[in-house]
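Worked problem 6 (solution included).
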Amino acid sequence: MSAATVLPVAWFAVIGFGVLMYVLLDGFVLGLGILAPFARDEEQLDHMMNTAAPIWDGNETWLVLGGAGLLAAFPKAYALMLSALYLPVLLMLIALIFRGVAFEFRFKATRAKPFWGAAFWLGSTFTAFAQGVILGAIVEGMPLQEGKYVGGAFAWFSPFSMLTGVALVFGYALLGSTWLILKTEGRLQRIARHMTRPLVLVVVAFMGLVSAWLPFLSSKIMSRWFESGNFWWLAPVPLLALANAVALWRVALREGRDATPFLLTLSFFVLGFAGLVLGIWPNILPPSLTIWEASSPPSSQGFVMVGLVILLPAILGYTWWSYRVFAGKVSTESGYH
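Solution. The predicted structure is:
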């Protein structure tokens, strides 16, 4: 096979991996912000935020990797996506900045601490919602004509994209609650355990609604599951996701199983992401823009791939090292300055 055939597939895998890593790692920090109103007092919110304080800002490296990889490897898809999703992308970036500023300022503030706590909640919630809207708009399909975007500034706004926006807010909240089970003890951990079970039900309900909606979208994602007997090869993905949800429901309240709920939630997201990729393949922008049509010249992709081979192990290395160094429970006495 030629480089023009193989390199777009490799870059699609790299970008998908970067996006998935961002969702898994920054998702639980966004979940902590979404759950901030459930903190009993300012000290408990301090404790929640301290569980992620040493590692939260490094997680966004994966978002940068996904965006930069999309620009370098699939510039046509990058241009079309920004043209179509300029407003929700702008909302996401503003909310991310707001969330980051609130995270830092709250630990320094005294009288304004409740204000920055509310800002942390708002920034996290709007970031999650905007990411869900972007996901929904991509899945729903871009209005393209001869390779050009022909929709308006609000073509992304639809009942389906609003549904996926709200669904991702609850999904990140589930990641946040299971992260607290992993990293805390005592009263805060008990609160997180009791929040996890209803969140599992809500997330499963949203996944069911989204799945039921897919056959009616113009992107024809569900049709790929039933073409040429594909369903029998792909059926394990939704079945595993359902089994995963049942297992998560059962272990949520079990004492002594602190890591299991978080690991099950991570695998739940991985299975959902796998189902999405299988549905849109080989398109990078449904319903019709394939990875080969959107790719940059093989020489450009190959050149940037050389840098990626050096950069990606470094990112994986410091991510692993930082999580290893700050592994274990975070006590109420721990502080961030």
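Discussion: Residues 3-325 form one domain.
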